[in-house]
Amino acid sequence: MIRLFDIEQENNIPSFFSAALLLLASLLLAVIAVMKRKSPAPYTLQWAILAFTFLYLAVDEAASIHELLMRPARELLGDRASGILYFPWVIPGMAATLAFALSFLPFVLHLPLHTRLLVLLAASLFVGGAIGMELIGGRYADLYGRDFKYNMIATLEEGLEMAGAIAFIYAMLAYIGRYYGQVRFRLM
């Protein structure tokens, strides 16, 4: 039973919950992208790219894809894969996050102020957990191993990621409500 709820483990209830949050965010982004496409609007492509990005994040959370970067990154770094780089996937993770943030900066600045602030809050929580706390947790694990204190760091990491995803879902629901009122789905 412990493994089913251990937030540090993969392929269990907390990772399923995180994947479901990211999938819901992806679906909301897809709805916005479709609505933007119906009435030509700027940044329609960015909404669609975000939908696919969140879909990838959901699949990654469910299937632990980023964990596959550990071995090659550790082999590449050798002895330098220690301290904050103990979990070396953070290097490509930071590079991808920075590239993504810079390329989406005009899009974010184009968002209405309320939505922009919520998106920035959500991103700060998510990235702060996924990368920031992973760096701290890596340093701790390298020095002291994976003990109770490390599990507390890992719990904070996952909690920040979930909080970021929830804040983002709220931002997208608020955006849909403000600009589209309601969205109806029709199956055939």
**β-strand number:** 0
Q: How does the major sheet shape up?
A: none
Return residue spans where pLDDT drops below 50 for at least 5 consecutive residues: none
Order of helices and strands: HHHHHHH
Radius of gyration: 18 Å
Helix content: over 70%
Q: Give the structural class.
A: mainly alpha
What spatial form do the alpha-carbon principal axes imply?
elongated
User: Beta-sheet strand percentage?
Assistant: under 5%
Average pLDDT level:
92
Number of domains: 1
Number of helices: 7
- How far the N terminus sits from the C terminus, by CA atoms, comes to 43 Å
Descriptive keywords:
single chain, 188 residues, mainly alpha
Describe the structure.
The protein has one domain (2-180). Helices cover 77% and strands 0% of the residues. The chain is built from seven helices and no strands. The longest helix is centred in the last third of the chain and has 33 residues, at 148-180. It is elongated.
Brief digest:
This protein has 188 residues and is an all-alpha fold. The protein has helices at residues 2-5, 13-38, 44-63, 70-77, 90-110, 113-144, 148-180. The chain has one domain.
What is the fold's blueprint, element by element?
Blueprint: H1 2-5, H2 13-38, H3 44-63, H4 70-77, H5 90-110, H6 113-144, H7 148-180
Helix pairs in contact: 2-3, 2-7, 5-6, 6-7
